[in-house]
Write a structure and sequence with these properties.
This protein is of the alpha/beta class. Helices cover 30% and strands 15% of the residues. It binds flavin-adenine dinucleotide (FAD) and iron/sulfur cluster (SF4).
Length: 423
């Protein structure tokens, strides 16, 4: 692997080697950029470092102190982001859906929120490319922009078979959702062995994460992945009005990597935390976030929408490196609650209808769902006043009714585990 001196001004320092940072490093290293990736966590060796056991997998998660707030505070621990080369994709669930074209046009189509400044067509080639690179396995997807996936769907577990039967009885079409898990050998990565420890880091390397997909290629093309290095602050050169580099800590010593540009890809909590921890002069200049790329309507909407759900830094607590601790507030709105209640009820109905011997009950549930759907359609036809505020707009019920079937079938192959290819 290339090694750059701290005093050498590299083209780009990337903070974080997860989904965003790992992919960016690979893309730019291939174009000849001199890239250093600072990663706070370790450079994992799946063979040596990971265990197929929930209790033994805590080192995969970000465990530095965080403050949570709001009316529905988010649970941390295994639910928290990743910490180490590969980022959160090391323990993420692997689900890889595309947005639908309609998701980009909610103002035009539904009269709520704001349209995105880009369309589905802008992203489509990137979806297609990444689905090949991970690769993604799943059923033909008939919704949104109908498409296939490079690998066919994985077999589903017994519980998901029950759900599929129940959904069929209720007239709900169910497909096996797309996952970034090989269904066939792929380069030096083997077929998934259906052991079910995807959320503890896939020792087999069948599940995609930058650690096994994009980082090896980034290194091959000259990127340096500097693990065990926590970025503390982005320094700005006031005379040039540009970044000068990143202050970071390695083995307890503070260091400074010079760079012409800096990209922060540290997950949705550490990224704002680092950006909020800039030098005092810089903070004064950029006191308010300016999401200009979104366009004026969407930028305003994001500001209104996020008035309660946001990441800030605390003024009274710092971590062991002296960086203010992140605070994350989360409160559900009416629309969130309605969506969660609808999804829970639908899943409940599906599983009840799918139980063996539930034929009569299934028919009754199907009849009730038809009556409910008719009532909803009648309510939708009734003229409604347009939402006056962003808060009212966000209370609109969503139209989404897709149910994903679990694609993993647990089995006990512990004695037959192959050794993962060395990374
Ligand atoms: C439990 C869980 C399940 C998920 N399941 C899914 C799913 O099924 N499908 C899906 O699409 N998404 C899922 N996600 C979300 C997805 O993993 C993230 O959206 C994605 O990984 C974010 O990419 P990122 O590059 O922003 O950050 P990450 O991939 O989290 O990478 C950030 C990296 O930055 C490092 N870092 C942070 N701060 C610093 C610092 N100051 N200095 C140096 N390094 C730093 C971290 O150690 C980490 O390795 C899941 C997330 C979690 C936590
Ligand atoms: S079930 Fe498949 S993807 Fe999940 S950990 Fe096992 S081999 Fe990896």
């Amino acid at each position: 692997m290339a090694r750059y001196d701290d005093t050498y001004p590299v083209d780009l320092v990337i903070v974080g080697s997860g989904a965003g940072g790992g992919t960016l490093a690979q893309r730019l290293a291939r174009r000849g950029w001199k890239v250093v990736v600072l990663e706070a966590g370790p450079f994992w060796d799946p063979d040596e470092d990971w265990v197929s056991d929930e209790a033994g997998s805590h080192s995969l998660y970000w465990t530095e102190e965080r403050v949570i707030g709001g009316s529905d505070p988010v649970e941390l621990g295994k639910n928290n982001c990743g910490h180490g080369v590969g980022g959160s994709m090391v323990h993420y669930a692997g689900y890889c859906p595309r947005f639908h074209p309609s998701d980009f046009e909610v103002r035009t189509r539904d009269g709520v929120g704001e349209d995105w400044p880009i369309s589905y067509e802008d992203l489509k080639p990137h979806y297609e490319r990444l689905e090949l690179e991970l690769p993604v396995a799943g059923d033909y997807w008939p919704w949104g922009d109908p498409h296939r996936y490079p690998h066919t769907a994985h077999p589903i577990a017994g519980g998901a078979e029950v759900a599929r039967g129940g959904a069929r009885k209720l007239g709900i079409e169910m497909r096996v959702g797309p996952v970034g898990i090989t269904n066939g050998a792929f380069g030096n990565r083997p077929h998934c062995i259906y052991r079910g420890f995807c959320l503890q880091g896939c020792k087999v390397n069948a599940k995609a994460s930058p650690l096994v997909t994009h980082i090896p290629d980034a290194i091959k093309h000259g990127a340096e992945i500097r693990a065990g290095c926590a970025a503390l602050e982005i320094e700005v050169d006031d005379s040039r009005g540009r970044v000068a580099g990143v202050r970071y800590v390695r083995d307890g010593s503070e260091r400074f990597q010079r760079a012409d540009a800096v990209a922060v890809a540290g997950y949705s909590i550490e990224t704002p935390r680092l950006l909020l921890n800039r030098t005092a002069a810089d903070r004064a200049r950029h006191a308010r976030p300016r999401p200009r790329a979104l366009g004026p309507g969407a930028a305003q909407y994001v500001r209104d929408y996020n008035h309660e759900n946001r990441v800030t830094v605390t003024s009274d607590a710092t971590d062991r490196n002296g960086v203010p601790v992140a605070r994350m507030d989360y409160s559900q709105c009416d629309n969130d609650r309605k969506n969660i209640a609808y999804a829970k009820q639908t899943l409940h109905d599906i599983f009840e209808a799918g139980e063996p011997g539930a034929d009569d009950h299934g028919a009754r549930l199907a009849a009730r769902r038809t009556t409910d759907a008719q009532a909803r359609r009648r309510a939708r036809r009734a003229p409604a006043a347009p939402p006056a505020t962003a808060a009212a707009a966000s209370a609109e019920p969503s139209r989404c009714r897709l149910i994903q079937a679990c694609s993993l079938r647990p089995c006990d192959l512990s004695s037959k585990m192959p050794r993962a290819p060395s990374s």
